[in-house]
Amino acid sequence: EPVAVPALLDGLDPDQRAAAERLDGPLLIIAGPGTGKTRTLTHRLAHLVTAHDVPPEQCLAITFTRRAAEEMRERLAALAPEHAGRLTISTFHALGVRFLRELHERLGLSANFTIAGTEQQLAILTEITGAEKTARELLDGKTEWDADLRDRYTKTLRARDLVDFDDLITQPVALLEADDALAESYRDRYRWISVDEYQDVDELQYRLLRLLAGERANLTAIGDPDQAIYRFRGADVGFFLRFRQDFPGAATVQLTRNYRSGKHIITGARQAIEPTTLVPGRELHACGSHAEHALIGLHTAADETTEAAFIARTIDQLLGGSSFHSLDSGRVDGDGDGGLSFSDFAVLYRTDSQARAVVEALTRAGVPFQKRSHDRLLHRPGVAEILRELGFVSPEQAADVPARVRGAAEAALSRIPAAELDERAVDIHTALDLLAPLSRVHEHDLDAFRTELSLGAEVDSMDPRADRVSLLTLHAAKGLEFPVVFLIGCEDGLLPLRWQGATDLGAEHVNEERRLFFVGMTRAQDRLYLSHAAQRHRHGADRSLPVSPFLAVLGQDLLERHGEAVPRKRKPRQISLF
Ligand code: ATP
Ligand code: MG
């Protein structure tokens, strides 16, 4: 009989509670955006270790991003402080690193192997093929690898005590598939496994999960097929859809109460996904405690510059500013909510290049922002220098990671010849800033810091605590929420995205783009603004893009339209939609 821990599950609704209370066996939780998936998973883990006495060491929770793992760790620390530190909460890649550190000998690596960055991969491939161009094409996936090349590449990596990013999953899978006793030992270690965002697992991740779950299969998969947006990276929503075949006898729980968004936003999002939903009969109800339910703003801009100006103006207005009093075109509902700050706003876009106009407008208006960059942190100027210096630090030295990072930056600066000092110094100072949050997280663990750094993708450039407007691609916005969201560039060609010269986009691509639109809309808590520009600079020319077909299904009663005078002569036909 489980011990009753009433307070722990108090914050859950009946469906969330049912999911959290389920002790063992495979469990599929199908749940729309904002229905508390992440929250349910966290409470479920806390409940397992406190009420059911499951040893925390036997719990493995897999998240999609490092940031999601961190957030889950924090929430668990609040719910079950005495156990939280002993659970494994990790991304697939970080889990792969952990396995390979344990199994290094089988691959001929030392326990301190490092993860090759793109530069190192390129150098090795150039050595082998004798041509940098060929090497680049191999890395771009433009040229096929043959078995001999693959073999030489892998041997060279291993000889230098390196693994590459792909190895982090392929190698553990290969090792566990080849050695059942080994797989069994991992199954014994992790008896309770949960995976957030299961709709976006790829084949290798799926194979790893099956190896780890085994027959016992205390596997909880949680996700939303309608938010599957990583097909281009090899993710396959099919694994979610066939979970119940893969794990016979799986219990299913659906979460349909959305606590995040106002009711018009939810209705609009439901309409947007309805034409191609992967969850037949899907339900999603607005259950949040919203004081008011704003309509969805739909803004027609003349071009990307005025679209960006609209954003700056609206932020100012919602913050209660007065600098833009005489609005002649854009009209914003409401007259300034109290209590909003810059970090409550997010601007979401399909392609990174759309951010430029927004950056300019916000800079001009003096609005602080942070933009998630697509560079891996490792490739930022200055970071490599600091890391190289860190390599010289002996492990016996006191493990105060932030202090050591600072020391390494100083050492790097002292090595730079005077001639290039100014320029490089700026790089190194910037790099030091970027490394400072991360080094604080791993205060006493230099190895973990370096691993994270090699794995840490674009995420690292965002500080969730900074009071700044967030500029994000739709993909990067997955799992996040903001009181006010601007989803810009709602045009046919951007949403759905059309590559230059592409004619037939293919139904699968358009469906995925629609899901991306759905993900974007459902990030908004209180206010959602959709915007499109009648004309936009794209592929080197000013183009008139028709309005996104995804807007056409939104009920007129949900929309509050505002627009600017759009040049008439080139008004595309589809604009008559409004
Ligand atoms: P996504 O699909 O976007 O990842 P999600 O299903 O993971 O969404 P969460 O991020 O866990 O949703 O929760 C969304 C919001 O709803 C959060 O602000 C969370 O605190 C709130 N929430 C979830 N469940 C409840 C509840 N039972 N009562 C009140 N608020 C809740
Ligand atoms: Mg979530």
UniProtKB/TrEMBL annotation:
Its EC number is 5.6.2.4. ATP binds at residues 31-38. Signal peptide: none annotated. The keyword Protein biosynthesis does not apply. Residues 10-262 form the UvrD-like helicase ATP-binding domain. It catalyses: ATP + H2O = ADP + phosphate + H(+); Couples ATP hydrolysis with the unwinding of duplex DNA by translocating in the 3'-5' direction. It comes from the Bacteria. GO terms for cellular component: cytosol; DNA helicase complex. The keyword Transmembrane helix does not apply. One of its GO terms (molecular function) is hydrolase activity. Residues 263-578 form the UvrD-like helicase C-terminal domain. Keywords: ATP-binding, DNA-binding, Helicase, Hydrolase, Isomerase, Nucleotide-binding. One of its GO terms (biological process) is recombinational repair. Belongs to the helicase family. UvrD subfamily. This is DNA 3'-5' helicase. It comes from Crossiella cryophila. The lineage of its organism: Bacteria, Bacillati, Actinomycetota, Actinomycetes, Pseudonocardiales. The chain holds residues 477 to 1054 of 1054 of the full protein.
